[in-house]
Predict the structure.
Amino acid sequence: MLDNLVDILVLSSLAGLATGFGGLVVVVLEPGKRALGFLMGLAAGIMITFSFLELMSEALKISGLFLAASSFALGSLLMFSLDFLLPHTYFAVDERGVISGKVVKSSVLIAIGISLHNFPEGVAVASGYSYLPRLGLVMAIAVALHNIPEGMAISIPIYKAGSSKLAAFRLALVSGLVEPLGAFFASLFLESFQELVPIGLAFAGGVMVLVTLDELIPVARESGHEHFTSFGVIMGCIATFMLMAVIW
């Protein structure tokens, strides 16, 4: 149990740190909205493909259609409810650095919204690893690839609004560290109730799809470069197929 827990915490921590890496990219390279739109689309393609092709597929094999579908619905509806109860936003910034959209009143609210998403991602990594270590590895890589543009989306408005580069990077970094916390609690729970692993897989799939549709794609399209976003989604799907072919 201890070995599995350590492996899960390492994988989820590395995936979470990718959010900080995305923040670092912003403060060092300052990418434009076109690049951000493509990368957010890439993340969306990765997450939605992986959710259905792996998480839901494995859950269906183990538990059958009804339980897998119910768990998927529970994950997506719970995430939707939390988003509604704890509203948050990534506000857009144009190429001249002018803030558009509603500005969140405090960085605390932003951090709550980000943590809201990263905690279930840790649950997804733990669920995948508890079922099959290779699935946990692929899940961690997919989440890390998704977290890089998410970290960029966090840092850009903070930096453009006048905060320091360090503050923008720090917020992205700290938000990602919630991920191993979710993995830790999920690992302890699933170790005691192995029969709930397929529920955890489908639940994580529902969370990922909701985050993709409700956050990643809308934020990506705010860039105004829809074709780059669509191209990013397709490339994300292809990247997921290639990742699975190499590791599987």
